[in-house]
Design goal:
This is Tryptophan synthase beta chain. The beta subunit is responsible for the synthesis of L-tryptophan from indole and L-serine. With 460 residues, this protein is α/β, with parallel strands linked by helices. The protein has 2 domains: 264 residues, Rossmann fold (3-Layer(aba) Sandwich), CATH 3.40.50; 158 residues, Rossmann fold. A hairpin with an 8-residue loop joins strand 12 and strand 13. Helix 3 packs antiparallel against helix 5, helix 5 packs across helix 6 and helix 6 packs parallel to helix 8. The longest helix is centred in the middle third of the chain and has 21 residues. The radius of gyration is 21 Å and the shape is globular. The N and C termini lie far apart (58 Å). Bound molecules: pyridoxal-5'-phosphate (PLP). The site of pyridoxal-5'-phosphate has 19 residues, from helix 6, helix 12 and helix 16.
């Protein structure tokens, strides 16, 4: 179904190294309704830079709190590192289009082309750089499925920083290979909850035998950072600063599309804490906010952890241990522990405050999809496009295929762009379950969600 214009569009568009974005774009600068500020969990007062300083690196706090500066220069040390694996390719999914027999034009931005296997490295290297610049000894973090921990380990070894990772216990046990990649890059990896922290001991006493959650691991990593001199805590998603670093994805995507003379109609990304989606859409959303162009933007989340589609827009704790600041976001409640789902990176109870505000303002849509449908899409994609996608990324593939099939019905030639955030080589147990027909679709009941909403902090 190639048209005249398609003849000039290659399968892969690689920008030149010299075309790498030199600045990150901060979409908050163009938002009329700014994301709500972080609040102190005890006093409910707005957190200021000095309140956040014991937890986060100074420069990252500035980025976190700055709702007005549109562009932040990317330091040359970070640009040098980016050059190892960026610009990443924008791929025209000609084979998928052919397979679906759709008139839609499908493009994907592939972020799995580095050893950590996902987009997480874009922010990991920035956060490690600022920690080093501040003269810190090391950083702590949590990791669920392991992608963020892997990316941060790589970034810390590059800048010779110590890296302590609290890995959700179930993943620590089920994903020994990810764990070993982190150790190869010099990180220490502790299964969470652990007896290393007071909060870990408390959680283990209350829930003996628990296999942990992202929320628990965050609490442990924050406690470790704040109780160890020369350490700070870093987070791989949710925060404004992370979306800022990930804007490199969207800026490259837009530059490549502009070069090809292509205008996107629909932009799709999976949403865990919101970092890849926030990054991918940022320059497009900027145009939308400034009234220069219009796009349909779709966040895709798992039906088992539907924070945007079924959550409440409210202030909530970012972690289970209730030590982190309160963020206003679409949330399922900090106590909500999603059913085991093979897209570990999408099992977070909340969502970025920036994306939550944009969603609440009707500037983007959200859909949730059950995991067997996600794996069907992943397999279909792998067989024609060659790349073995991560389960998280496959949520975006599912909806891109669904939108392309709608175009087949209507005959519309829409241009669909989606984020392919990573590869799935460490997720073969999930693929095995899918192939053996053992994969289940868990969808929480309203009663379960209501129980969790009842524990949201009371705000006056
Ligand atoms: C491959 C991949 N895609 C997507 C995500 C979701 O995270 P975010 O919503 O921050 O992009 C993750 C998180 O671990 C991931 O590993």
């Amino acid at each position: 179904m190639k048209t005249e214009q398609d003849k000039n569009i290659p399968y892969k568009t690689y920008l030149d190294e010299s075309e790498l974005p030199k600045s990150w774009y901060n979409v908050r600068a163009d938002m009329k309704n700014k994301p709500a500020p972080l609040l102190n969990p005890a006093t409910h007062e707005v957190m200021k830079a000095e309140d956040l300083a014991p937890v986060f690196c100074d420069e990252l706090i500035k980025q976190e709190l700055d709702n007005d500066t549109a562009y932040f220069d990317i330091p040359s040390e970070i640009l040098d590192f980016y050059k190892m694996y960026r610009p990443s390719p924008l791929i025209r999914a000609y084979f998928l289009e052919e397979k679906l027999q759709t008139p839609a034009k499908i493009y994907y931005k592939f972020e799995g082309n580095n050893t950590s296997g996902s987009h997480k490295l874009n922010s990991a290297i920035a956060q490690a750089y600022y920690a080093k610049k501040q003269g810190l000894k090391g950083v702590t973090t949590e990791t669920g499925a392991g992608q963020w921990g892997t990316a941060l380990s790589m970034a810390c070894s590059y800048f010779d920083l110590d890296c302590k990772v609290y890995m959700v216990k179930v993943s620590y046990e089920q994903k020994p290979f990810r764990r070993e990649v982190m150790r190869t890059y010099g990180a220490s990896v502790t299964p969470s909850p652990s007896m290393e922290t007071e909060i870990g001991k408390k959680i283990l006493a209350a829930h003996p035998g628990t296999t942990g959650s992202l929320g628990c691991a965050i609490s442990e990593a924050v406690e470790k950072a704040t109780s160890t001199p020369g350490y700070r805590y870093v987070l791989g998603s949710v925060l404004n600063q992370v979306l800022l670093h990930q804007s490199v994805i969207g800026l490259e995507t837009k530059a490549a599309l502009d070069k090809l003379g292509v205008k996107a109609d629909i932009i799709i990304g999976c949403a865990g804490g919101g970092s890849n989606l926030g990054g991918l859409i940022s320059p497009f959303m900027g145009e939308k906010l400034r009234g220069e162009a219009d796009y349909r933007i779709i966040a895709v989340e798992p039906a088992s952890c539907p924070s945007l589609t079924r959550g409440k827009y409210a202030y909530d704790f970012c972690d289970t241990g209730m030590v982190c600041p309160l963020a206003k976001m679409y949330t399922l409640g900090h106590d909500y522990i999603p059913a085991p789902n093979h897209a570990g990176g999408l099992r977070y109870h909340g969502m970025s405050s920036t994306l939550s505000q944009l969603y609440d303002d009707g500037l983007m849509e959200a859909v949730s999809v059950p995991q067997t449908k996600v794996f069907e899409a992943a397999e279909e994609f792998a067989r024609v496009e060659g790349i073995l996608p991560a389960p998280e990324s496959s949520h975006a593939i599912r909806v891109a295929i669904d939108e392309a099939l709608k175009c087949k019905e209507t005959g519309e030639e829409k241009t669909i762009v989606f984020g392919l955030t990573g590869t799935g080589y460490f997720d073969m147990v999930a693929y095995e379950k899918f192939h053996d027909g053992l994969m289940e679709d868990y969808i929480p009941t309203d009663a379960e969600l209501n129980e969790s909403f009842a524990k949201l902090p009371k705000m006056d």
